[in-house]
Design brief:
Order of helices and strands of chain A: EEEHEEEEHEHEHEHEHEHEHEHE
Number of domains of chain A: 2
Structural class of chain A: alpha/beta
CATH class of the largest domain in chain A: Alpha Beta
Oligomer: homodimer
Distance between the termini of chain A: 17 Å
Largest interface: A-B, 31 and 31 residues
Number of helices of chain A: 9
CATH architecture of the largest domain in chain A: Alpha-Beta Complex
CATH topology of the largest domain in chain A: Quinone Oxidoreductase, Chain A, domain 1
Chain lengths: 331, 331
């Protein structure tokens, strides 16, 4: 009998999440019923939104239930099928959670073609993070040639895509990232025009130097101090897509002192989550898949080995220790 | 020779504006050149935006120049015309500033019909404040029947109109105003469902009690603490029109602690100024004029007598001492 290792939520964090909030359990791999299929998960996606789910507070989705398998995106291979839509050997992307195997009835499962795009990329640049970047950039900010576009967590799975999409619109693109190594890669690998290292302790001055014409569009993944400094540099009719507030996911206070810029500069500020924008997925995935296949979009992955490593990798992601898309290789 | 009394900006405020920042001067009433007309200003409009103009800081318009006539909306009568578009006796609304007489070339001047709507109302409910309320409500917030709509400075020239427009959309309408007298009138005169007295010291609890279903739309005239408490009560997909931040016009800090609601509730936050929405004026003025003429829209005015009283009346407006539209009767 094959064993399925799973991570469940053992307890809710009090402040920062810790390894002890998770528990590894083992269960037999089940048998698919009629209409179902069994999938071996090759990759697990780790994403900041999971931290918010661990809290028992009102948010845009229900909290992660205690003692249940942690929610998460997965990419894998069908190894048994009793569903005519899927055949053994199909590569599929879904939300099967932090476990080695999963059973699905096919709903929400997406068959992917790995001949031109690697399987893992469907959890990143050609998956949920990529679509998130695409919608925030092209659906909300709508950057125009010559404008200055800033994105935080710029070396991350979402930020790197958002910045490259804005570059394709001929913007001046400025990233905000943590540390000189990430900043160097944001410029050299992803082609941004500049990158501000928020850990260098000169956020205000460095942001001003990198955005001499002010800021027209801001793709926000972090909130907090970066958002506040960006607000102070926004130009008239600027647009801010609020995609994540990772700086406050553990309950940290995030006072914003420059809110008056919203009025003074007649800003649009729009919070969004990509699962509520179904119209975005098909065009975004088509464009991003083509860009990746033809080399027009660069991406990086940080891959942690083995399901046992998932909690540590996740906590590292929350601390910004990853570079690009954080994955766990499960098999 | 007729004398034209004028208020000029004598100095920029350091913190709160004071009477000493203004200086009353006298000049001869000029003669209109070819294509120009001379207007006797019967009413001067006093509006919060003027406080922002007094500062020498970046905002959406150039600062008010020192030693020049203070900017301001006016309603009056043509007393001499060398412009074929206007005849002596025409009633006109324009931006002739804090003075008893003004000369105009007709650009930006609007002829008004006082047979069904009083002249003064064209500076309030059927003028700039009314159009502001109309656009923020119908153009940005788009309230739907059954939703909860909150407006701050609810007894003011903009707030009272916004709330009544939302009431026409069958919303639950809640005002925020200063003091029991204003709150009573907001309910009894303007027909709001409830009103929170922000001066009562129980803002959070009273707002919660008045909005048991949360808040879907917020028309913000004040910023600061009210905005922060409203953010904490916003429902998913809520909309906030940022029209004024009167609580911060004198440079007060306005920290916002509940910004995360923008993401959690996928809010739209839109700053605007009505002069940049030219498409709004004709439909708004038509609708508001009809509502006022037929008794479907209530309004209040606080009228100060004589041009000498303008600075005191203006400072009172900034302190919320007015009730409804603050005007100065000039003749």
């Amino acid at each position: 009998m094959t064993i399925n290792k799973q991570w469940v939520l053992a307890s809710r964090p009090d402040g920062e999440a810790r390894v002890e909030n998770f528990r590894l359990v083992e269960a037999p791999v089940g048998k698919p019923a009629d209409g179902e299929l069994l999938i071996r998960n090759d990759y697990l996606s780790l994403d900041p939104y999971m931290r918010m789910r661990m809290n028992d507070t009102k948010s845009y989705t229900a909290p992660q239930a205690l003692d249940q398998v942690m929610v998460g995106g997965t990419a894998g291979e069908v190894i048994e099928s009793r569903n005519s839509q899927f055949a053994v050997g199909d590569r599929v992307v879904g939300m099967l959670g932090w476990q080695q195997y999963g059973i699905s009835n096919g709903v929400g499962l997406r068959k992917v073609d790995i001949s031109r795009v690697p399987l893992s990329a469907y959890l990143g640049v050609v998956g949920m993070p990529g679509v998130t970047a695409w919608w925030g950039t092209n659906g909300i900010i709508e950057p125009k040639a010559g404008e200055t576009f800033v994105v935080s967590a710029a070396s991350g799975a979402v930020g790197a895509v958002a910045g490259q999409l804005a570059k394709l619109k001929n913007c001046r693109v400025v990233g905000v990232a943590g540390g000189p190594e990430k900043c160097r890669a944001v410029i050299e690998e992803f082609g941004f025009d500049a990158c501000v290292d928020y850990k260098a302790g000169r956020l205000q001055a460095d942001l001003a130097a990198a955005t001499p014409q002010g800021i027209d569009g801001y793709f926000d993944n972090v909130g907090g101090a970066v958002l506040d400094e960006v607000l102070a540099r926004m130009n008239a009719f600027g647009r801010i897509a609020v995609c994540g507030l990772i700086s406050g996911y553990s309950g940290e206070a995030m006072p914003i002192n420059n809110f008056r810029s919203v009025l003074v500069n007649r800003l649009l500020v729009q919070g969004f989550i990509i699962s509520e924008q179904p119209q975005a997925w098909a065009p975004a995935l088509a464009e991003l898949g083509e860009l990746v296949a033809t080399g027009g979009m660069r991406y990086r992955e940080t891959v942690s080995k083995g399901i046992e490593s998932a909690p540590q990798a996740f906590l590292g992601l929350l601390k910004g220790r990853n570079f690009g898309k954080q994955l766990v290789k499960l098999s």
